[in-house]
Specification:
The protein is mainly α. Among the domains are: 163 residues; 160 residues, no CATH class. The chain has 27 helices and no strands.
């Protein structure tokens, strides 16, 4: 008998294994894929088929889709699918791209099947959305953009109830996919969606969208805000309220229906459209709309509730312009801020926006308020508001002119908060007037100047400035205003103020010294 060598045996074994593998590959069909979806080791076999070059592309695509279709709790099928695609892309990018192109229409169909806003999507539709999010990265650009659109459309059917469905939220999708997703979100914006959902859409678009996308979203928000103001929208709100009261006994009072619908409309506008505009107010068209709303002062004879609603809307509009006000907005902001018949809160917001313009052209308009000698609390507060604005815009260079404008009559009242406010503004100026303040502390003059100097030095003074505050501590000039005697301790004189400032300066310097010791 002829003996078989060990090397011959190895050759025959290798041949047998190759033949077995080929026969195994040829024997696998769609029925096997379907069966493996339900077996313990099936997912691994399915992924081997998807990654295997020897299998027909049609079968490989079916294998990929099977990972989306399977309902398993013992593993994350989509995570494993994503890892498999990464391996495949590293070996054969074209194969990965072709498989995605073959299954993309079915993923889109699954997502679109959840098109009824009245029903929650089926689990398969949610998994298709999550799979599309993972696999869009392996598609060509045209297909990638289509998948992004389909993903966002899935959320857009009912953004409020769908935004958190699945493995990835709408926010994660937009932040990952950027402008294409943000742009598609514009179509999801709707006047009748919950206000907080509308504001969230605007936030995502404002943070992830391109300038072009943000401008487009701004125009859409303006259209939505105008729709909310319409009679048709109010009627829709009335009908929604009636539906909510369907189980209530007796007839509804139509006056109550009107009242509830009107208040709800203002909530939709303020919390939805205007809050959304805040995220997009870099857009000139949005800024213009916000200014138009802010300028819409109610008639003097308007009912109290109407006036209140209008002022709240104007406040929200001005808040939406925060950090976005520009010099070209100045004239209209001044119109609001200087209107003595307007709401004080609205005027406050206008002052804030004027400061943000950085325009020194506002300063001359402030002097009439700064020079007021009235004892009226509102007018004193407006003097303080205007004074701080002058210092914000003018900085150290305006200090002497500012002090010369402050009224210095014996009976002119100032509150502690006003003078502290001036000192605080000066202390954080880009060019703090340290030397000018020291000169004021050394020289004679109105008590207001010395109090401002004391408050300033407690914030920016050095050890050498203690002598200046000690000198001011001997000043017995009376403070004039209601608030000085309400402080603890009572501040009846400039000296009382200076002693308090000296104590706070010492405390600050000790803190600085401890910090230096710890650093060393």
């Amino acid at each position: 008998m002829k003996k078989t060598s060990f090397s011959d045996f190895n050759v025959r074994l290798a041949g047998f294994l190759v033949l077995s593998a080929l026969l195994w590959g040829c024997a696998i069909d769609s029925g096997d894929i379907e069966h493996w979806k339900r077996t313990q080791k099936g997912p691994a076999k399915i992924l081997r088929v998807m990654e295997g070059e020897r299998f027909p592309m049609e079968l490989r695509a079916q294998a990929a889709l099977a990972m989306v279709e399977m309902e398993r709790t013992d593993l994350s099928a989509l995570h494993e699918l994503n890892l498999a695609f990464r391996r495949l892309e590293s070996q054969s990018p074209e194969a990965a791209k072709e498989i995605v192109s073959r299954i993309a229409p079915e993923l889109s169909r699954m997502m679109a099947a959840a098109g009824d806003p009245k029903e929650m999507p089926e689990p398969l539709s949610i998994r298709a959305k999550d799979a599309a999010f993972r696999l869009q990265a392996f598609a060509d650009e045209e297909l990638r953009l289509q998948l992004i659109a389909d993903i966002i459309d899935f959320y857009a059917v009912d953004f409020a109830s769908r935004s958190l469905l699945g493995d990835v939220s709408a926010e994660q999708v937009v932040r990952e996919l950027g402008d294409p997703a943000a742009n598609r979100l514009i179509e999801a914006m709707d006047a009748k969606m919950p206000p907080d959902a509308l504001a969230k859409l605007a936030e995502l678009i404002g943070e992830e969208g391109s300038d072009e996308t943000k401008a487009k979203a701004g125009e859409r928000l303006i259209a939505i805000e105008r729709e909310m103001e319409s009679k048709e929208f109010l009627e829709w709100l009335k009908e929604e309220f009636r539906k909510s009261q369907a189980d209530r006994e007796g007839e509804l009072d139509e006056a109550r229906v009107d009242s509830v619908a009107t208040l709800n409309r203002e909530r939709f506008i303020a919390q939805g459209a205007l809050t959304g505009m805040r995220r997009l107010s870099d857009s000139p068209v949005v800024a213009e709309r916000l200014l138009t709303i802010a300028l819409a002062k109610p008639p003097a004879d308007a009912p109290e509730i109407v006036a209140q609603i209008a002022h709240e809307k104007r406040e929200t509009a001005l808040l939406a312009l925060e950090n976005r006000a520009k010099p070209e907005h100045l004239d209209r902001l001044l119109q609001i801020a200087l209107d003595s018949d307007d709401s004080l809160i609205v005027r406050d917001h206008a002052f804030d926006r004027i400061a943000e313009t950085g325009s020194k052209a506002a300063i001359p308009h402030m002097w009439p308020l700064v020079t007021t000698t009235s004892t009226d609390d509102i007018l004193k507060r407006l003097r303080w508001r205007a004074g701080e604005l002058v210092l914000v815009l003018g900085g150290s260079s305006i200090l002497q002119e500012f002090l010369s404008k402050l009224p210095q009559g014996a009976r002119v009242e100032y509150e502690p908060e006003e003078l502290e406010g001036y000192a605080a503004r000066l202390s954080v100026a880009t060019d703090p007037p340290d030397d000018a303040i020291r000169q004021i502390a050394r020289s004679g003059g109105h008590w207001v100047r010395h109090v401002i100097a004391a408050y300033y030095l407690e914030r920016r003074g050095t050890d050498e400035d203690r002598a200046l505050l000690e000198r001011l501590s001997n000043d017995r000039t009376a403070t004039v205003g209601d608030g000085w005697t309400k402080r603890d301790p009572v501040l009846r004189t400039v000296g009382d103020v200076a002693r308090g400032s000296l104590a706070r300066l010492d405390e600050r310097l000790k803190g600085d010294s401890k910090g230096d010791d710890s650093d060393s």
